[in-house]
Amino acid sequence: MTSFSKDVLYALRQLARNPVFAAVALASLVLGIGANTAVFSVVNAALLKSLPVRDPQELVILTNPNATGVTAGMVTGERPLMSYAEFVQLRAQATSFSGMYASEAELNRGHMRISGGPLEEVRVRLVSEEYFSVLGVQPAIGRFFTAEDAKGPGQDPYGVISYDYWQKRFGGNTSVLGTLIHAGNATLTVIGVAANGFRGESVGENPDLWMPMLMQPTVMPGRDWLNENMSQRVEKIMWLHTFGRLKPGLSRSRAQAEVDALFRQIIENSYPASLSPELRKQIFDQRLVLRDARSGAFAGKDDFARQLLLLLVASIVVLVIACINVANLLLARASARTKEMAVRLSMGASRQRLVRQLLTESLVLAFLSAALGLLLAWQGAHLLIRLLASVRSGLELSANLDWRVLAFTLVITLVTGMIFGLAPAVRGAAVNLNDSLRDSGYSTQTAARLNIARGLVVAQIALSLMAVVFAGLLLRTLWNLQAISLGYPREKLLLVTVDGVRAGYKGPQFPNLWRDLTTRLQALPGVQGVSYSINGLFSGGEADDEIEVEGFTPHQEDEEGSRFDMVGRQYFAVVGIPLVRGREFGTQDGLITPHVCVINESFTNKFFAGRDPIGRHVIQKFGDQKNIMEVVGIVKNARDHSLRDEVPPRFYVPGDQGMQGPNQWATFEIRTKQDPEQLIDSVRKAITDANQNLYPANARPLVESLEMNTANSRMIARLSAVFGCVALFLASAGLYGVLSYGVARRTNEIGIRIALGAGPRAVIGMILHETGVIMVIGVVFGIALVVACTRFVASQLYGLSSLDPLTIITCVLFFGAIALIAGYIPASRATRVNPVQALRHE
To answer: Are 398 and 45 in contact (CB under 8 A)?
Structure first.
């Protein structure tokens, strides 16, 4: 330890004596280590960190942790979510769990009045009454609601607020207990505040308020998802995540076996006995899959993990390039210390002792960089989270430097120190005493070090080219997505969603409501046309049903269904979707008139190939219900939900003729004569003037929705471009450094060449030839890396392949230009060598 401490002190003195070397090396490593630590801290916060609850390793989730929202209908295979009635039965019968609870799969943004004040937006989650007790958390003040409070629907009007919301909204005042909150038709009393740091079971979401699930019909008037008669309906309302705490010592596989048996019994008793045998067979193909839930649920976790993995790989590439740069610096420094090493050897030091000394210097440099890198990572992680939150609405993560992050930083610091320090240490200790003490100039040792340095630069170029190519592919993908044709004008189109149920409307009242709102909005100055759709343009909502097409025989499962939407009158004219043949919907398509539909070109090509669709019939099926429709029109394909996917077959039905009746909410598409932003306030006022309980949500221009749709691609492209530029800069600096070092060590040779008559052009050509050889070898290895690693970016691309020749050739030419500049500077300097001074160089 005494020897080691002396080595550390000597290493620090060496860095102090060489401030330029120390600054360049530290800057490279701080950037690499800091970027990796920042990305990993976000990975840790989102994917690895356990929930702050009692014994999180005992928690399991019975639904799909990636699922979110509300699913109405019938599913087969793995069940993503559960209905309340299913949860109640499973909770009552399961014996493998010490406790079970259910939570709403989507964080709602409700509009409530606090203490009789104005409407405020509050993030709300409905949870079963056992929620807090099963998780094993404690309140900061007050108490939590429990199973004893569950007297019946609407009879436990209590609320628990989060610690953050308590501080932000109520200033941390303990008098918050007893505060009244008006939500829907309910008035709740705040009875407790959750502990600091507890944000629930869903990663990235931070509820302001938790309410008992039995309050659902009261706080969400018009929708009763509790009292579902399971044996009389094929359509289930699936909206809950279900969690369980395994009994001590009980394995997950044993609990899975019990859940399989119980859930099959529940399914068998949950559908009408009159269903056809074929449909019952489909229904029984439903199952729950138990997963480890220590890290909670996370909507869209798989996509998020792929994005973070891509960023982590990019940051690792930057770190490796930085290590190569520092290794080259150390090799160059080793040449300057040749005499020092020779003197140490001549005085009895062993070569192992020299290697240990040089490795210690490398590790000291790595740990200094890690200390500074942690500061960079702290800021970088928060910046990255803000970027991620800007593309994932409502994402809230807390990236702390916990033991996992510190352990990760320690590991990459040790590995980094060994990577850039080992080769220079071995080469630095492998000195020839006679040559070194004679100062023989350009010796075999110098040539060997130059060959190692050139090899490292080749690796730098290969890695940097891969990073730049991938950044180019992602940037071109972003360009393709932004330039894609929607099939209708995207400008001057305003979208706004209205939920009629929460305002008290029911059944046959909806058609009148949508027509009334359409008339009111059409009368606004600056409005050119108004219609509505149930799913909405780029709203995230989608619908599909099983169909039969007149004259078409399906041969595959995907030929038995189609996407559909319910739309208002003149929908296609308002949105701007061209009509190919026939007509669109008008006043003649009412509730009691023959049912009709309009199909898109994809539907026509798939189901009516070579036949005229007009006048033929499409049968929409849901369970045993059928809706027979006559095709009255064909429209052009339009992108209304996704920019990346091919436009699927879709049929449209009039809003008054939907098989399930008029839907309970609608998105109004408003074609404007001016900037849509200028009409948002007047549109909201027109809607609330119709009924003050109607709340216009998500009012924004279509172009803003499209920006949100491409936000992930934009973020990944920009961050990849940043990493690519950093990699390019480091590789260019490494190439310049190696060439400059080579010119300096070959001063004698260059002087002799000039003395013998070599002109500046010949000298420059010699050095640029060396540059070209290094560049070509690096490009070959770089393209090989691109081919080997295409799977990392293939899923993120659109409109081009991962081996797009234009992108690769452009990046190679750009890299070649940078390499020529990096080589020309030392080459130009070499032409100014004085032959007399060069011959005296030794």
So the answer is: yes
Please report the DSSP string for 765-790 in residue order.
Answer: HHHHHHHHHHHHHHHHHHHHHHHHTG
> What are the tens digits of pLDDT across the range 366-380?
899 999 989 888 888
CA of residue 637 relative to chain centroid, distance:
29
Distance CA 309, CA 256 (A): 30
HSE of 700 in the Cβ direction (CA atoms, 13 Å)? 13
| 3-class DSSP state of 166 | helix
How many residues would you count in the chain? 842
How far apart are the two ends of the chain, measured CA to CA in Å?
41
How far is it between the farthest Cα atoms of the chain? Answer: 106
Orientation of helix 711-745 relative to helix 747-755, angle to 10°: 60
Res 612: pLDDT: 92
Identify the helix (H) or strand (E) that includes residue 240.
strand 240-246
Residue 233 has what pLDDT? 63
Amino acid code (one letter) for 169:
R
Tell me, letter by letter, the H, E, C secondary structure of 364-403.
HHHHHHHHHHHHHHHHHHHHHHHHHHHHCCCCCCCCCCCH
Q: How far apart are CA 650 and CA 638, in angstroms?
A: 10
Do the Cβ atoms of 739 and 826 come closer than 8 Å? Answer: yes
What is the four-CA torsion angle of 341, 344, 346, 352, rounded to 10 degrees? -80
Low-confidence ranges of the chain (pLDDT < 70): 1, 228-234, 334-345, 348-349, 390-395, 423-450, 623-624, 658-663, 741-749, 833-842
Cβ–Cβ under 8 Å, residues 620 and 659: yes
CB 822 within 8 A of CB 736: yes
pLDDT computed for residue 634 by the predictor: 96
Helix (H) or strand (E) holding 35: helix 19-43
Residue 825 neighbours by CB under 8 Å, 6+ apart: 736, 740
pLDDT of residue 554: 85
Strand partners for 666: 498
What does the buried/exposed string (b/e) look like for 734-756 if buried means 16 or more CB atoms within 10 Å of the residue's CB? bbbbbbbbbbebbbbbbbebbee
Report the C-alpha gap between 729 and 709 in whole angstroms: 32
Please, is 232 exposed, middle or buried when counting C-beta atoms within 10 Å of its C-beta (0-12, 13-18, 19+)?
A: exposed
Whose CA is closest to 367, among 39, 37, 40, 30? 30
Q: What is the full DSSP assignment across 475-526?
A: HHHHHHHHH---SS--TTEEEEEEESGGGT--TTHHHHHHHHHHHHHHTSTT
In whole angstroms, give the CA distance from residue 749 to residue 743.
Answer: 9
